[in-house]
Specification:
InterPro entries: Ribosomal_uL10, Ribosomal_uL10-like_sf, Ribosomal_uL10_bac, Ribosomal_uL10_bac_type
Radius of gyration: 23 Å
Number of strands: 5
CATH superfamily of the largest domain: Ribosomal protein L10, N-terminal RNA-binding domain
Family: Belongs to the universal ribosomal protein uL10 family.
Oligomer: single chain
Order of helices and strands: HEHEHEHEEHH
Low-confidence stretches: none
CATH topology of the largest domain: Alpha-Beta Plaits
Function: Forms part of the ribosomal stalk, playing a central role in the interaction of the ribosome with GTP-bound translation factors.
Number of domains: 2
Strand content: 15-25%
Number of helices: 6
Keywords: Ribonucleoprotein, Ribosomal protein, RNA-binding, rRNA-binding
Protein name: Large ribosomal subunit protein uL10
Mean pLDDT: 87
């Protein structure tokens, strides 16, 4: 179904607004994905704050021109689904996790921080822990010297009690 000029302009404006807010763009070829599976993918993406869109490649190229996402313009060929996310790893994580279970979805490329990513780069980005996990790891790292000192002091106090008894 062909879009008229005003509809194309609306799509370009929508993609420009998504790109302006997003840190990451991930592209995947969706040929052969069943409608039910695509619905599940969209639901998971919404939960993670990822905007998934099936768009005409020429309109996306026009929308991302002059943005950091222009780095992947040469990869925008074929039937693609585009995932934009404000979180640096959310789009990569959602699409990579879905691609593990559904072989019909094939990761193509992505862009993070103005740098084009190949399939391996997208998978590496997807393997980065979430912000909450990283904060928990940092807190654990910061608490370890204090808890170690507390254990040593408790052991010394116990030894002195045993020696006094």
């Amino acid at each position: 179904m062909s879009l008229n000029r005003s509809e194309k302009e609306a799509v370009v404006a929508e993609v420009q607004s998504l790109a302006a807010k997003a840190q990451t763009l991930v592209m995947a070829e969706y040929r052969g994905v069943v409608v039910g599976d695509m619905t599940n993918l969209r639901a998971k993406a919404r939960e993670q704050g990822v905007n998934l869109r099936v768009l005409k490649n020429t309109l996306v190229r026009r929308a991302v021109a002059g943005t950091p996402f222009e780095a992947a313009a040469d990869q925008m060929v074929g039937p693609l689904i585009y995932g934009f996310s404000e979180d640096a790893v959310a789009a990569a994580k959602v699409l990579a996790d879905f691609a593990k279970d559904n072989t019909a979805l094939v990761l193509k490329a992505g862009v993070y921080d103005g740098k084009a990513l190949d399939v391996n780069g997208v998978k590496q980005l997807a393997n980065i822990p979430t912000k909450e996990v990283l904060l928990a790891q940092l807190l654990g790292l910061m608490q370890s010297p204090i808890s170690g000192l507390a254990r040593v002091l408790a052991a010394v106090a116990k030894q002195k009690e045993e020696a006094a008894a």
